[in-house]
Design goal:
The chain is of the alpha/beta class and about 450 residues long. It is built from 16 helices and 14 strands. It is globular and about 70 Å long. The longest helix has 27 residues, at about 405-430.
Length: about 450
């Protein structure tokens, strides 16, 4: 849907009448993505928004008083990087069926000089007024295999922070199998935000990852020791039908877990045609949207990044973070981090394993090329109402899936966005009108 105004804030009309069993354009969402504002309009009101006098409509007048949504900052130069992933090893004790980094498995560990130079770079005196930096210990392998190194890295970060003053936060993604009391207490005391990848159900966990008993015990122990954590579950097409059972088990056996993050599994080996990907996305959409109500009834917040798109705006999906690999190279994506992976050369834009006292080195042309993958450079994004929400889709997706799948992914993103807007409007209406159906009200108002 094209922008309906040429000289006003971005405003789009999205036909949704069919969702109310009406003609497609009988009900439309007027959406201003830069403000995160949206409302339902009928065909007559939609016509007014398309007229030259659109600036005088109630909706566009209201937009003038609304603040702009925060823009996720894309670093214009390497000096502006504010996200750093440290992949301390390429070793893993699990063998997940959908693992994105299995091709990079090895015994390699990040050289000490690489992480030290990275921390030095981030906390250099000339960067003290830059954005707060986010350090994450994640992918490549299982980070807690390198727990002694994590302690040393964190100590060094604290030291450099004291010298620089630049704010920072810490994160860690783990499979949860190596969590001892010592590790849990350290994570808690250092305020490291930890996410555990966990399939919840024993049959799913043991099939996809293994060690359900051990991870389950560790989750309970984290709760007992007062260590906040989150869990996430990538869901294959085989796992999706089990989502209701996963929610029930959380409520019954893990009542202290009040949220679950679920995400689609991106695997061109499994869903590498438009037909297969479309069927998978349809299944994910239908399963997730039904499960949200069940989760709310159980007191659990069910979340997916595919649906949570209205909190901010962005001009690119990939924020060009610095992913320091176990080999000492710098990738812009944690999913491409080993020289044995086929796309390695397309994602590496620097090195932290430089000789002697030399600082990090960057390939500026590659960095600039990565930053050009945004909503202004991709023709199909120019008139898309969801462009500020999806940022032009994932760069890795576009380089691994065939072109026929791009439109499928775009359709899924827009479908999720519309669902999220309608859900929010429905909740507001139901709060004010608990005895009346939102759908019935919309149909009767046309």
């Amino acid at each position: 849907m094209k922008n309906v105004t040429d000289n006003q804030p971005e405003l789009y009309l999205i036909p949704v009448g069919e969702l109310f069993e009406l003609d497609s354009k009988a009900v439309q969402i007027a959406y201003a993505p830069l403000h995160g504002a949206y409302t339902l309009v009928d065909a007559k009101e939609a016509g007014k928004l398309q007229e030259p006098s659109t600036a005088n409509t109630d909706f566009t007048t209201a937009l003038k008083s609304l603040p702009m949504l925060p823009l996720l900052p894309t670093p214009p130069t390497t000096d502006d990087i504010w996200e750093v992933d440290l992949l301390l090893n390429n070793i893993c004790n699990f063998h997940c069926s959908y693992c994105y980094s299995a091709a990079g498995r090895s015994n390699k560990r990040m050289p000490e000089a690489a992480w030290k130079k990275t921390v030095d770079f981030i906390f250099a005196p000339d960067k003290k007024d830059k954005l707060p930096v986010r350090f994450s210990f994640s992918g490549g392998g299982e980070p807690l295999i390198s727990f002694p190194e994590i302690r040393r890295v964190v100590n060094y970060i604290e030291q450099k922070h004291q010298e620089s003053g630049r704010p920072y936060t810490l994160g860690l993604v783990t499979n949860g199998s190596l969590l001892t009391d010592e590790v849990i207490e350290y994570i808690r005391d250092k305020k490291i935000e930890i996410v555990v990848s966990f399939e919840v159900l024993p049959e799913l966990q043991n099939r996809e990852r293994g060690s359900w008993d051990k991870v389950s015990t560790n989750l309970h122990r984290m709760h007992e020791l007062g260590c906040p954590f989150g869990i996430r579950s990538p869901l294959t097409e085989d796992a999706l039908p089990h989502l209701p059972a996963m929610l029930n088990m959380l409520a019954e056996q893990f009542p202290f877990i009040k949220s679950l993050v679920v995400e689609p599994v991106h695997s061109p080996e499994w869903y590498g045609s438009s037909e297969k990907l479309s069927a998978y996305f349809d299944l994910f959409f239908n399963t997730y949207t039904k499960a949200v109500e069940q989760a709310e009834a159980l007191g659990i917040m069910l979340v997916s990044n595919a649906f949570s798109q209205l909190k901010y705006r962005r001009k690119a999906k990939c924020m060009c973070k610095a992913v320091v690999t176990a080999e000492g190279s710098i990738s812009h994506c944690a999913r491409v981090a080993a020289s044995t992976e086929p796309l390695y050369d397309r994602f590496i834009y620097g090195h932290a394993d430089t000789p002697g006292d030399e600082p990090l080195s960057f390939k500026q042309e590659m960095f600039e090329f990565i930053n050009k993958r945004n909503i202004f450079e991709q023709p199909e994004c120019v008139t898309c109402y969801a462009r500020w929400n999806c940022g032009g889709d994932c760069s890795l997706f576009r380089q691994t899936y065939p072109a026929e799948c791009y439109e499928v992914s775009c359709h899924f993103t827009k479908r999720c966005l519309v669902w999220e807007m309608l859900r929010n409007m429905r909740k507001q209406f139901s709060h004010a009108n608990p005895e009346q159906s939102f759908e019935d009200y919309v149909r009767s108002s046309i």
